[in-house]
Specification:
Helix content is 75%, strand content 0%. By secondary structure, the chain is mainly α. The chain has a single domain, classed as Orthogonal Bundle (434 Repressor (Amino-terminal Domain)), CATH 1.10.260.40. It is elongated and about 55 Å long.
Length: 91
């Protein structure tokens, strides 16, 4: 296999991984927006007992929520923890 062929294969693999990561990060944002009546980050954060910058870290995937945080987020959005976890896996 040529170096060019290896580079192309690596680039394709990396692009797929990046798309999956981006889609995986968006699950919390999509869930928040779909939650009636489509609340803002600040509103969702306040309902979950946290500040908006912390919520942003969870939505962007820079911080992983604990199970306790997931429970608070689920209550804030009016969904179950299971819904949050399966939304993150399916997308």
């Amino acid at each position: 296999m040529t170096t060019l062929g290896n580079n192309i294969r690596t680039a394709r693999r990396d692009a797929k991984r990046t798309r999956r990561e981006e889609e995986g990060r968006d699950w919390l944002k999509r869930t928040r927006i779909d939650a009636p009546p489509g609340i803002t980050q600040a509103e969702a954060a306040a309902r979950a007992g946290m500040k908006q910058p912390q919520w942003t870290l969870y939505e962007t995937g820079r911080l992983t929520p604990t199970i306790g945080t997931l429970r608070r987020v689920a209550v804030a959005l009016g969904v179950t923890v299971e819904t949050l976890l399966t939304e993150g896996e399916e997308r």
